[in-house]
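hey so i finaly got around to running the thing on Conserved oligomeric Golgi complex subunit 2 from Ascodesmis nigricans. pasting the sequence first so u can double check i didnt mess up the copy paste, my clipboard has been acting weird all day
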Amino acid sequence: MAFRPGPPSSADSFDSDDEFPFPAPLPREPFSDISHTFSPHEFLASLRNRHQTLEDLRSELRTRSQDLERELVELVNRDYADFIGLGSSVKGGEQRVEDLKMGLLSFRREVEGVVAKLMKAREEVERELRAKEAIRKKKTLARNLLTVAQRIEELSTLLLLHDTRDAALSSGPPGLLEDGESLTSTRRLKKLVYCWVYLRDFLLPKIPASHPFIKAQEPRMETIRKTILIDLASAMKEARGEKNDKRCLEIMGLYADMDAEKEAVKVMKDGKR
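ok and heres what it spat out for the 3d tokens, dont ask me to read them lol
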């Protein structure tokens, strides 16, 4: 069976989604107190324990604004019609009707002022939300870039790419690392392939391929890939020489994980010559 990577490391736990309870409706108090200057920073800070996505919060603010506008219009229209009808039914009530009309017009202007303030507050909150979303995306990108750099460094160290292999092997028995492990041991090859597949399939897709850092690391990543294939080829030749069919199958599975089946076939053909 082809080797497949296990669950992502703790470096990627930041991207996992947790299930949270449905948040309570937004309070009206921050928008209804006209004597207090609305502050989007204070409003967002008051929601720090609210488990809700930025898009859901933005949608709820739009809905709250529309509901308030509709309620205010209904209130003004209903009371205005009632007062006009009452004044018209009273003899000599024209002046009273006019007074009420002026009062209602004044009230309507106040309502329009509240609505305008609410609209401005909503725009400020949305602007702050967009800024926070941009910051979150930058932090996620930086974290992913750091993880990619760590994986490339780890692979380079495992493959002895910082120093020449001859220098790394000179201090121990021929073909062995300093810890006594063979360059072509199945355990070591599985670890190398795991790291490479995790880098290729889980980390790199999270970063734009055109990012300058990824472009700069492409030659280094290609060197890593070729070096792993060289070690796999050496291990395959050893397994065929030992007539170890089980190990040959394991190495073929590692070739499949590397998406290098053609290279495996070439090594097998070369071994028959």
